[in-house]
Design brief:
Helix content is 41%, strand content 14%. By secondary structure, the protein is an alpha/beta fold. It folds into 2 domains: 267 residues, Rossmann fold, CATH 3.40.50.720; 175 residues, NAD(P)-binding Rossmann-like Domain (Rossmann fold, 3-Layer(aba) Sandwich), CATH 3.40.50. The chain has an 8-stranded mixed sheet, sandwiched between helices. The N and C termini lie far apart (64 Å).
Length: 515
């Protein structure tokens, strides 16, 4: 029997045929009971980092009388990677990990107390609902590092998910797409699929056109994880007026639109473009910092002090970003590629997006600069013990997708270094063959010669040099990838005889001269 293993090691068997039949009966009975309470029924397709929390937020919504207007089914697939999320959620346990106390509260509150959220694997659920929120993954594939212009989008899995919806939903059900998609997807991909599925079911798609809307979130995993979904501005649109009106009403019922107004655009191409442009802007901002970080290192300047001095100019420069090990996560690494592919493959435009694509290439190769810093001190890394603090792509989250630490790992492996990693949030590093990530910092640091502060997890920011030096008696080089070490801590490492280097931290030689 196939099993799915949760990050904590709990094993869940795949459902049997009998359990599938029982689940369909449960879904029908639950839905009937919820409708008697006056609730509309929602299914969120995809229980990942966005979908699971969005499902909880919708289930947690209340009207002015304090009643829950929606009951939510969270849906995911019966696969080894995903199935464990379903029984986990149904226990009232979050399927995601982040440094946000609301994460550990909203799931038991909606599943156990309010009883407005339940997860399922059964596709039958789509027959029963008034709204489908699409939060399934859609990746851009980059065949080569540093050659994002060759990137493309494989829509097969996404199309399969949309086909599943089209085979089951009622014609009046609204499809609200939250997945970041290439511009043109709602009109050129989703709409034709739904129309075809409607026609195969005997539904006249001219008289009953699919209702499709697009609303992108701005999820910020970390201490404001839940609020970045519920209490934050949104842009949305509909494929027609009825879709847009229905989406607007839904969003106003779920989100704090009084304090965070939503912006309605006149077509789905526009809101789809807004999402990829927004993230392309941020990716370009970060890419710009690489060359300035290198310059600051060469001329003895602390770039982070420089950036802070510039940020006092509010309204124009206060969103300047810092250099780092590199860019990771699900958005900034791929969204410019989605847009570039859309321009080329959906709209067949002669001019693509070279500036945005170049930013992606710079960011993808950014971890190589950390490698250059290490090799200036250790030109030969064979059998040198290197410990990397931080596997996830962002501070205080467990998400390892497209983490720049993976690029650094690969480069160190190519140089035959001995590599240790540590991360307080990540249990399993899927991108490295489901590798277990050690939690004992003392064990990780033993015999370490090179220590890389890769991610700004709170535990690492609070880590004192005294403890590090106690654990790593042979430590000779410390690398700070994004201003994680204060000048005081740098001086303590220097006093202990360690070399310290940092991205954008050209002032370290000056600190050394003060000792």
């Amino acid at each position: 029997m196939s099993i799915s293993v949760a990050p904590d090691g709990t094993e869940y068997n795949f459902p049997t045929e009998r359990e599938n039949d029982e689940e369909i009966k449960n879904l029908i009975n639950i839905t009937k009971k919820q409708r008697k309470k006056g609730r509309q029924i929602v299914v969120v397709q995809g229980m990942g980092f966005v979908g699971s929390v969005m499902a909880a937020v919708v289930a947690d919504a209340e009207d002015k009388e304090g009643n829950s207007p929606y009951f939510v089914h969270g849906h995911d697939l019966v696969t080894t990677r995903s199935f464990w999320k379903i029984p986990t959620i149904n226990k009232g346990t979050p399927p995601v990990s982040a440094d946000d106390p609301e994460i550990s509260q909203i799931f038991p509150r909606t599943v156990k107390k309010k009883q407005t959220l339940r997860a399922t694997w059964q596709k039958y659920v789509y027959k029963l609902v008034d709204y489908v929120i699409v939060d399934i993954q859609l990746d851009a594939i980059k065949p080569e590092l540093g050659a994002a212009e060759k990137g493309y989008v494989d829509l097969n899995a996404f199309k399969k998910g949309i086909k599943t919806i089209g085979k089951h939903i009622k014609p009046e059900c609204l499809i609200l797409v939250e997945t970041t998609v290439p511009p043109g997807t709602c009109t050129n991909v989703i709409k034709p699929i739904l129309e075809e599925e409607f026609e195969e079911r005997g539904i006249n798609s001219k008289q009953n056109p699919p209702l499709i809307a697009h609303s992108y979130e701005r999820v910020m995993p970390g201490k404001n994880y839940v609020n970045s979904i519920r209490n934050f501005w949104r842009t949305f649109s509909g494929i027609n007026k009825e879709s847009a009106d229905k989406a607007e009403e839904f969003l106003e019922n779920v989100l704090d639109t009084e304090n965070f107004p939503i912006k309605r655009l006149n077509q789905t191409n526009a809101s789809e473009l807004a999402k990829v442009l927004e993230n392309s802007y941020r990716a370009t901002n970060i890419a710009l910092m690489k060359e300035w970080a290198i310059m600051a290192e060469e001329i003895g300047v602390n770039l982070f002090d420089v950036i802070e001095s510039i940020k006092v100019r509010k309204g124009t420069h206060d969103n300047m970003l810092n250099p780092s090990l590199g860019v990771g996560g699900y958005c900034l690494t791929k969204d410019p590629v989605l847009a570039n592919w859309s321009a080329r493959s959906i709209f067949e435009l002669p001019n693509h997006l070279p500036f945005a694509i170049n930013a992606v290439n710079i960011n993808d190769e950014m971890p190589m600069h950390t490698m250059e810093i290490i090799e200036k001190v250790y030109p030969h890394l064979e059998n040198v013990r290197v410990s990397i603090l931080g596997v996830s792509y962002h501070k205080d989250v467990a998400d390892t997708r497209h983490s720049p630490t993976k690029t650094l790992w690969d480069r160190l492996m190519a140089k035959d270094a001995l590599i240790n990693v540590h991360d307080p949030y990540v249990e399993i590093w899927h991108e490295l063959g489901d590798m277990q990530v050690p939690k004992d910092l003392k064990e990780v640091l033993t015999e370490t010669k090179v220590l890389v502060f890769a991610v700004g997890h709170r535990e690492y920011l609070e880590l004192e040099p005294k403890k590090v030096l106690q654990y790593a008696e042979n430590l000779s080089l410390v690398v700070d990838c994004s201003n994680f070490l204060t000048d005081r801590k740098i001086k303590e490492y220097l006093k202990a005889g360690c070399e310290v280097r940092g991205i954008g931290k050209g002032h370290i030689d000056y600190l050394k001269s003060q000792i």
